[in-house]
Amino acid sequence: MIEVYPDLESLSRAAAAFIVAQARQAVAARGRFSLALSGGGTPRRTYELLASPPLAEQAPWDRFHIFWGDERCVPLDNPLSNARLARAAWLDRVPIPPAQIHPLDCSRDPAAASRAYEAELREFFGDQPPRLDLVLLGLGDNGHTASLFPGTPVLEETMRWASEVYLSGQNLYRVTLTAPFLNQARRVAFLVAGGGKAAVVREVLHGPSDPRRLPAQLIQPQTGGLRWFLDLAAAAALPQADPTLQA
Ligand code: 6PG
C-alpha cells in the first residue's frame, strides 16, 4: 500500500498515528508491541510527534518493546547513533520501561555485537514466532534500507537475524537486521520524504527486480503487510495511477 502526503509534516502525523494504532492492536491481541526503529533523519519528526500530545497520552507505553533495524558502530552518545536520535526526539520523553528499550551498541566489536543482538532477539521471542509487530524503514537514495547496502555480503544472508556490515566508503561498521528476519515482521512501513528520493522510489517500486543494486526490494513481508508513507516530492516520479494523495 502506498500513501502519499503533501509534506513531511503530514506524512509524520500519519506515521505516528499508524504506530500508535498498531501498538494498540498488538497489545489487545498479544499483550505487547515490538517495534524496530529506522535510523536516518526522516523519522525524527514522527518520533517527536509520538512524544507529544495527543499521541503521547494515547499509547500503551508500558507495553512497548523497542529495537533498532540497524545501528552505526559508534558510541551511543555519538551524533551518528540512531539510538541517540530516537532517545532525544522521543524515547527519553515517554515512560517506556528502560528494560524494554534494546539499543544496539556495536562500537567496540561489530561481529560480537550482531551475535549478541540476535541472542537478545531470540530471548525476547522465546518459543514464539520471531515476528516483530512493526518495522520502520527508511530508503537511501542508493536503494539501501536499514544497513542493507548495495553489493554487501549481508544481502545474501539467509540464516542470521542480525549481521555486521562494513561500509568502506564511510570507513564505518554497522549492524543491521537481515532481510529474512525483517520479512517475518507482521508489518513493515517505509517512511520516505524529499525529491532526492523520487528516482529511487520509482526504481524500487516499479523498476526491474535487482535487489543487489536496490536492497530495499528485498523487503517483502511474508504477511504482505508492507506500507509506504511518501511525501509528494518522494512520490513525484511514480505513475499518477499509483499515489493516493491523503488529506
Ligand atoms: C541509517 C538508516 C538508513 C536510513 C536511510 C535514509 O542508519 O542510516 O537506517 O537506512 O533509513 O539512509 O536516511 P534519511 O532518512 O536520513 O534519508
Overall CATH class: Alpha Beta
| Count of distinct structural domains | 1
Q: Biggest β-sheet: count, sense, barrel? A: 7 strands, parallel
Number of strands: 10
3D shape? globular
Helix content: 25-40%
Number of helices: 6
According to CATH, what is the topology? Rossmann fold
How widely separated are the two ends?
A: 16 Å
Cross-sheet strand order for the largest sheet: 3-2-5-8-9-1-10
Written as H for each helix and E for each strand, in order along the chain, the element string is: EHEHEEHHEEEHEHEE
Mean pLDDT: 96
Model description:
By secondary structure, the protein is of the alpha/beta class. The chain has a single domain, classed as 3-Layer(aba) Sandwich (Rossmann fold), CATH 3.40.50.1360. The chain has helices at residues 8-30, 44-50, 82-89, 110-125, 179-182, 198-206; strands spanning 2-5, 33-37, 64-68, 70-72, 134-137, 162-167, 172-177, 187-192, 226-231, 244-245. It starts with a strand and ends with a strand. It binds 6-phosphogluconic acid (6PG). 6-phosphogluconic acid is lined by residues 38-42, 70, 82, 138-140, 144-147. 6-phosphogluconic acid binds next to loops.
Short description:
This protein has helices at 8-30, 44-50, 82-89, 110-125, 179-182, 198-206; strands at 2-5, 33-37, 64-68, 70-72, 134-137, 162-167, 172-177, 187-192, 226-231, 244-245.
